[in-house]
Request: fold
Amino acid sequence: MAKQSLFVGVDIGGTKTAIVVSSKPPAIIDRIEFRTRPERGAGPALRLIKEGIDDLLSNRGLERTAIGAIGVSCGGPLDRIRGVIQAPPNLSTWVDIPIKAILEEEFDSECHVENDANAGAVAEHRFGAGRGCRNMIFITMGTGFGAGIIADGHLYHGANDMAGEIGHVRLTRSGPMGYYKAGSVEGWISGGGIAQVAELAVAAARKKGETTVLAERLQGRKPIMARDVGLAVQDGDAVASRIIHSTAKRLGQVLAILVDILNPERIVIGGLAMRLGDALLGPARKVIQREALAPSATICEVVPAALDEQIGDIAALCVAMGL
Amino acid sequence: MAKQSLFVGVDIGGTKTAIVVSSKPPAIIDRIEFRTRPERGAGPALRLIKEGIDDLLSNRGLERTAIGAIGVSCGGPLDRIRGVIQAPPNLSTWVDIPIKAILEEEFDSECHVENDANAGAVAEHRFGAGRGCRNMIFITMGTGFGAGIIADGHLYHGANDMAGEIGHVRLTRSGPMGYYKAGSVEGWISGGGIAQVAELAVAAARKKGETTVLAERLQGRKPIMARDVGLAVQDGDAVASRIIHSTAKRLGQVLAILVDILNPERIVIGGLAMRLGDALLGPARKVIQREALAPSATICEVVPAALDEQIGDIAALCVAMGL
Reply:
């Protein structure tokens, strides 16, 4: 392998961290992952990142000089220019970690840092469901709810890299908490929000004597997760279907706001949308047609992300490529 | 004057149409205006536009060959690429008027067409309160309520030139009508919306025996206009102040949504904001600080437009310059 021809992607999540290498993204040569364990602080994970990169290189008989660039994708807030991770909610012990400087010094290679919604937007735009779009919005719909905006073919960052924080917008005066705000988009529609809505729905179903597989989970004193609701929908559970239907309608309201303001050709939705597909996106699309201006609603496709489980890996590689 | 060195701007509004010429915008060499009279259809106004351009040229002893480019700014919807005006609300008789083709044929010169919110955004960005900004939003706050978005230094159009239609976003489930939608941003915050809110407020004040200068207007069987409310505020009228204060808080809610999604350095507001200044913008700024994410709210300045009455003229010249 030629010197400096390898891209290294590091996708740091609250649960796991993945490291991938590629000479021509999105094709991945090799990959490892480990548990991030944020409760231990950043130190051990940073060591595992360095060792992991070295392991991937030596697996292929390569030297560190093969590295062209490193890309780090992780949750915000972060200082993209200086490359500093600033205690994102899912990595709250990672306070002001200068990961760019750390990796550049260690590997004598340039390193770029980007938040995961933006990196995911570029990955889907370049290699996934957003290919060929000039104006596209990528929605992350996991623990949180955020957007990455592609405007006129380029990732849009905003004045201080905060663009796309649609999860923080208030949808109702009161409601489930998300992003420190009651009734916010993240409160209603994220994985965390769906879990809150589900607990109330299951309690209401019980009172009416309606059975639902979700009740078993509560009886086992385990919290209901958005994933459980999704699985229950696929099993035909009526309570779970109602929860997802009302989530879908609220999702439609939010997307209609984005359609009226940004007039994108396509909205690509990751996370839950990939698993639930039309159960979630069908009702959302109907609300968009009703709520947004007709010329904008008509032109805008709403589709699940295409990169599936690979999205984090490919997103980190896009960061390594300088986006 | 050298051949093809003159920019001609045509600003077509529902009330009046202005024509300006400039060899170096924003400096204006000469200007005329006439009443648009949309009730007569487009024909007479188009004739007056052609005659007006010729008059401005002959006033200065110039030939038509002096024209470098013509720019037309008017309300949407319009087909920007083909240059066709498609019956905007304030020019409803102008159905599919191919103004670009008409003026290009007449004057043998290129002609560009742009909607007024976008043209105003570029004018304020280049010559007004948005100078030096990389990311800016311009808000028109007149009969309607719309936005022009400058993203990474360039006007953002969206997939089919519909970006910035924030006036169509629903703010409450019910409320005053605007943009064919009850409770929309335009229903609550535009000049038309303020007039609706004012009628209710004056009726309520009367019941309580509270006096207000606005009541006189209603007794005279004249509708209350947003302008009347603005003037009454300047006269210290308590009812009018309350109307503007509640409008300002709703404006803050809307701007907070734009701040969270687009993270602009500056929001520049035309129309009513230029007249009311801090009476409107003060309370709106407070709501933004409370509702939007701190890093985005802190960086974003909210200011009145600087080009004042000249904004339409300079906007049309920016269109002539190809934006």
